[in-house]
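Suppose a colleague, Dr. K., hands you the sequence of a protein chain of 159 amino acids and asks what its three-dimensional shape might be. Before reaching for any lab equipment, you can write down a predicted structure in token form. Begin with the sequence itself:
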Amino acid sequence: MAKSIRVGIGKYRYNISGNITITLGGIEIPNSESENYDPSIDCLIYAVSDALLGAAALGGIAQIPDFYEKVESKAVEVVKDVERKVHYEGYAIVNIDSTILTSNNVINKYLNRIHENLTSLLFIKPEQLNVKVCPYTDSDSETLKEKIECNAVVSLKKR
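The predicted structure, expressed as tokens, is then:
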């Protein structure tokens, strides 16, 4: 019997209030206007985690025990927990395709570091992960500075 491929989709949007530095894929993205850093804000990790859980039919990140406590410390703890759950259920990651929608062009400079960090956190090969940035377009250019959205599609197979 052929092993089936399972697919999950994750999406997370964050409205950045005030001058705050965020993380994407566990990598700090500096904000030249801010020294405030919040390691719990990582919409890429949340989108990937949600997609992994969905593909494995394990719910979503909000159903993770102690999710909100983990989020308050560091977002990478969430993806580590999710990777363990998916692995324990007998699944292997086939591919992850993710998109960061933002008006912040500086993120392009960090894509390689984001990619390296996520492949390390998820124990996957570089060719199993795609991370890309797309411009976030909106009619109100002022609100664009305050928005970031990440989407992820994950495929899994039974090991």
